[in-house]
Specification:
Elements lengths: L4 E7 L4 E9 L6 E9 L1 H4 L7 H23 L8 E7 L3 H18 L3 E5 H13 L5 E6 L4 E8 L2 E7 L5 H11 L6 H9 L24 H18 L4 H29 L6 E4 L6 H14 L3 E2 L3 H4 L4 H12 L34
Parallel strand pairs: 1-4, 4-5, 6-9, 9-10
Antiparallel strand pairs: 1-2, 2-3, 6-7, 7-8
Helix pairs in contact: 2-3, 4-11, 5-6, 5-7, 6-8, 7-8, 8-9
The structure holds 5'-O-[(R)-(carboxyoxy)(hydroxy)phosphoryl]adenosine and zinc ion (ZN).
Length: about 350
């Protein structure tokens, strides 16, 4: 690749419409020339969750605008693009379809190759974009819709070592916030409230730690929180600020302990790792980040947490995954399908839960 590769990426699998341009010149580190994200939080605010039809309509309206903005930000035209990469799943099908159709239109109109990207691969390959991490490494995807450990051995070689069998951690944070009357998204609100709280006042369970392996469960934690809250209300007629602080601190500590212990087991299953990387919105949590980082240090493995804008949903990760796949020879035809479900590791048994927001990471 004498002049390198420049890839346009599109993402629309949940509630963020995004377009980005990523370039890698021969022998150089990749560069994000543009990354545009139009969130939809306000559109779904009244409904307590993402409404698929509203999301799909908004994606269809915003994708073209995002692409124009991304090309303008990068200061290039379609003539300088080598391929169009698009999230082809997993996700809310209307949104994924909007993205795939838009990408096909651009590819057909400009005569460009098309590359379908698995959204989870986008998250899992991000540490290569941000830090040039070599294979093999362990990735923990931890978000509002997903929680899984992936051994990443190539841009199309993923082994799932374990995952949540019910709720995703972000979902548990969001539900906890709702139960305690805190604002959404729940993660940052719970983290703020937990500050100065006593994590030992309530004894929250550490689900599945008694069982071998890396699978996790978070729904019991949420039920335990509900019971503790209701007991306090029955006893005192309501919740004091100190109660909220202690409940949040206890919940966060339990979740952190489960993630750290399961991460230790996942790390112990692997040899020759170049690093342990986290991605997803929950990776923004300072307590969880600190626990995972010190675990990695104790295990003698570098810890990587991409900047938050590249941890949460974005199109730079899709452009980058597309670039890696394109370089490896992957091309898709105009029969590229939008897939609501698309496990990264086809050989792993299906997990029971997929999270409130559907298949998201
Ligand atoms: O990756 P993301 O932006 O989108 C999804 O895949 O859902 O993650 C959003 C999730 C939400 O559930 C949010 O509450 C959680 O990440 N989150 C956090 C924090 N910031 C965001 N959870 C815990 N602590 C945080 N600081
Ligand atoms: Zn995601």
């Amino acid at each position: 690749m004498p002049r390198g590769l420049t890839i346009l990426g599109l993402e629309s699998s949940c509630d963020d419409t995004a377009a980005a341009v990523v370039r890698q010149r021969a022998g150089a580190r990749p560069e994000i020339l543009a990354s545009v994200v139009h969130g939809q939080t306000a559109l779904h605010a009244d409904y307590g969750g993402v409404v698929p039809e509203i999301a799909a309509r908004a994606h269809a309206e915003k994708l073209d605008i995002c692409v124009e903005e991304a090309l303008a930000q990068a200061g290039i035209g379609l003539a300088e693009i080598d391929a169009v990469a698009v999230t082809a799943g997993p996700g809310l099908i209307g949104g994924v379809l909007s993205g795939v159709m838009c990408a096909k239109g651009i590819a057909a109109g400009a005569g460009l190759p098309l590359v379908g990207v698995n959204h989870l691969a986008g998250h899992a390959l991000t540490p290569r974009l941000t830090d040039g991490l070599d294979f093999p490494y362990l990735a923990l995807l931890v978000s509002g819709g997903h929680c899984q450990f992936l051994l990443v051995e190539g841009c199309d070689a993923f082994t799932r070592l374990g995952g949540t069998i019910d709720d995703a951690p972000g979902e548990a944070f969001d539900k906890t916030a709702r139960l305690l009357g805190l604002p959404q998204p729940g993660g940052p609100a719970v983290e703020r409230t937990a500050r100065g709280g006593d994590p030992a006042r309530f004894s929250f369970p550490r689900p599945l730690l008694d069982r071998p392996g890396c699978d996790m469960s978070f729904s019991g934690l949420k039920t335990a929180l509900l019971r503790a809250r209701d007991a306090l209300i029955a006893e005192q007629g309501g919740l004091y600020e100190a109660d909220r602080r202690d409940l949040c601190a206890g919940f966060q500590a339990a979740l952190r302990d489960v993630l750290a212990e399961k991460s230790r087991r996942a790390l112990d299953q692997c040899t020759g790792l170049t690093g342990f990387a986290v991605a997803g919105g929950v990776a923004a949590n300072a307590a969880i980040r600190a626990a995972l980082s010190s675990l990695a240090e104790a295990e003698g493995v570098p810890f990587l947490a991409p900047p938050l804008a590249l941890c949460t949903d974005n199109a730079a990760m899709i452009a980058w995954a597309g670039l890696e796949l394109f370089r490896a020879g992957h091309r898709d035809g105009f029969d590229l399908a939008a897939r609501p479900r698309w496990p990264l590791d086809g050989a792993a048994p299906a997990l029971l839960g997929s999270g409130r927001k559907g298949a998201k990471a």
